[in-house]
Amino acid sequence: MLVTVPVHPPAPPLRVGMIGAGGIAGAHLPAWLNLGAAVSHFSTVGAEVLAARHGGVAVGSLEELLDLVDVVDIVTPTPSHLGYIEAAAAAGKHVFCEKPLARTSADARRAIEACRAAGVQLYPGHVVRYFSEYEATHRAVAAGTVGAVAVQRFTRTGSRPGPDWFHDPESSGGVVLDQMIHDLDFACWNAGPVDTVFARQARIGPGTDGVVSAHVVLQHVNGAISHAAGTWAQPGTAFRTTFEIAGSDGILRHDSGEHKPLVIDGGIRHECAAGTGLLPDVTGISPFELELGEIARAFMGGDPPRVSAEDGLAAILIAEAAITSVRTGQPVTVASIENVGVAA
Ligand SMILES: NC(=O)C1=CN([C@@H]2O[C@H](COP(=O)(O)OP(=O)(O)OC[C@H]3O[C@@H](n4cnc5c(N)ncnc54)[C@H](OP(=O)(O)O)[C@@H]3O)[C@@H](O)[C@H]2O)C=CC1
Ligand SMILES: O=C1CO[C@H](CO)[C@@H](O)[C@@H]1O
Fold it and tell me: Where do the Gfo/Idh/MocA-like oxidoreductase N-terminal domain residues begin and end (predicted)?
């Protein structure tokens, strides 16, 4: 069966204020500019560098930024997300915030409440839903290609990024919250909400600087099982992702290692299926551009995007349940989780 990924129409012009100027900002800024947005950006140090490299206007303070823009795009280290979401909401600006929506589920709930009270929209950046191999697979599953989903398997291997805050599990949340959250979210997109989580984690090397790998098993409310493995132990900058989705009537497989890479300006490199089998229709457009275009259209009064703030909260709750399971050695129900705090 061939599945076609629909062409995404361009977003209308928008005044966007980006907060943060690091790795992922280098993927967002060109995407916003390609979409025709007018971009101002602010960070504590790096905004000038980003402007010189890609364009947009570097501004000196958060207050100045909020005065200039219609919407805010938060691309700062995870612990700072909540404060910037609250500031943007207080200024009456719609908010797009990179994953994870916040460092803890309690913070994510506060963020959702702040935006609801201010009457502004809030969306988290789960860009994997916009990678063509993932989008096409989701559409195939939703169309019944494999029948009822029974077992999903995901792997995501990469190296831990350089900035120090990723190394501190108090800041990044560790490999489960920071990296594997992509697959935790994708698992729910296909198989619905999660009831119970069991997880194991391994740390090779000294102290908090050790390289962490994890395996998380999810039991969905509908009975399906998902298992996700992730590691920061793969050398180099390329990610490799695989998945296999087995149902009552068939199985879908993807391995980014068998397909040609998609290189995104700004130094972030993912790998993307192209040209064969189930997933022939690679748009050639940055998934960040597809993502931000859909979000921009929602901000301008169009349809809601495919991922909600509540989806962002759900993914954090699953990650927190996994971290609790690592600590206790026991399965953990997602409903029992409320801000467990730091990573194991
Ligand atoms: N969806 C995806 O595929 C990805 C998502 N992410 C997520 O994006 C977020 C940012 O990650 P990444 O870009 O890799 O991180 P980086 O460390 O590369 O960049 C962070 C940027 O934020 C700035 N910054 C740091 N603290 C503050 C602050 N308090 N206020 C304003 N600016 C600040 C830093 O700049 P300065 O030096 O100027 O202070 C830097 O420009 C994280 O939440 C991460 O999980 C990251 C990578 C990929
Ligand atoms: O997809 C991604 C690439 O890896 C990074 C480091 O784990 C993540 O922060 C990011 O979400």
Answer: 14-126
Question: Residue 257 and residue 124: Cα distance in Å, rounded?
Answer: 27
Q: Helix, strand, coil shares of the chain as percentages rounded to 5?
A: 40, 25, 35
Task: Evaluate whether 254 touches 273 at the Cβ level (below 8 Å).
Answer: yes
Sequence-distant (6+) residues with CB within 8 A of 338 are 105, 106
Query: What is the C-alpha separation between 62 and 77, in angstroms, rounded?
Result: 16
Query: pLDDT tens digit string along 265-315?
Result: 333 333 333 323 334 344 567 889 999 999 999 999 999 999 999 999 999
Amino acid at 303: D
Contact 169, 208 (CB under 8 A): yes
Q: Cα 299 to chain center, whole Å?
A: 19
Q: Whose CA is nearest to atom 1 of ligand 2?
A: 179
Q: 339, exposed or middle or buried, with CB in 10 Å at 0-12, 13-18, 19+?
A: middle
Instruction: Locate 148 and state its tokens.
Output: 């009822």
Q: Which atom of ligand 2 approaches the CA of 161 most closely?
A: 6
Q: Residue ranges per domain, the chain?
A: 15-125, 131-282+308-328
In terms of CATH, what superfamily is 131-282+308-328? Dihydrodipicolinate Reductase; domain 2 (3.30.360.10)
pTM: 0.91
242, two tokens: 């695989």
Ligand at minimal distance from the CA of 164 is 1
Are 301 and 63 in contact by the 8 Å Cβ rule? The answer is no
pLDDT tens per residue, range 21-36:
999 999 999 999 999 9
- Report which ligand 1 atom has the smallest distance to the Cα of 270: 3
The residue type at 19: I
Tokens representing 12 are 């209308």
Q: State whether the beta carbon of 100 lies less than 6 angstroms from ligand 2.
A: no
Residue 271, ligand 2, Cβ within 6 A:
no
Q: Give residue-wise pLDDT tens across range 162-217.
A: 888 998 889 999 999 999 999 999 999 999 999 999 999 998 876 666 678 999 99
